[in-house]
Fold this protein.
Amino acid sequence: MQPNPYQPPPQPPRRDIWLWWREASRFYKIFVLSCVAIMVILGSASLVISSQLHPATSAQIAVATATSLPNRPSPIATGKPAVAATKPATPALLGSDISAFIARYGPPNDHSDTANGQYYFQRYPNSKRDYLIVLTDNIDGSEYTNRVFGLSASANTDGWTMAQASTQCAMFLPRDAVHQNDVQLANLSAIDKVYYSPSIGVLFPTSNFVDAENNPIKAGTFDVQYLYTDASETHVESCGFLLGSGQTK
């Protein structure tokens, strides 16, 4: 009689892990999850401590990680040089410090009398005529000594059209200046344009703001007189700024 062939012992049935998790008790689940969380926290803390104690090693790891990645395209060069942020220059306007005019138009020339607050700039070639004459307020004390309270811009011998003169002279108007009215001068080939500027009103003493009869007027009032080259009144020789409205007479 032949012996029965060897039969392996029966294997216990396999249980699905999710089935096992569903059947586990609530206490057991909380215990397992707590252990996992503690392990994660301890692992993160050890990495932080290691990076602080061994910064060079951390840097080497970062380099090694970067070099192990696939090659990536380099950033595309724009061809534009980096532009450093610069502070805008102070504009050279009625009421500005004289330094703004020197920065804009260069050193005053030898027609100037700076001790008396008279600054002349940019003489025309082959001429004794200066493009710009600037007056500072030396009368009202040291607080105002370098502050521009009057100026005159002149054309060359050909003169400016009124449009050209308006463009040239508008460069010196305070930013908040508002045109009030025009006065045609009867005894002079000129027209006077009156403006009001709140900022000018607080830059100078109120005694600077008077009319042609020397009566007080609203602080911040100033006028710009356009002087024609001749009685034809077709071209402008110069424009002159002055506080108050004394030029309207």
Summary: Residues 17-68 form one domain. The first strand starts at residue 118 and ends at 123.
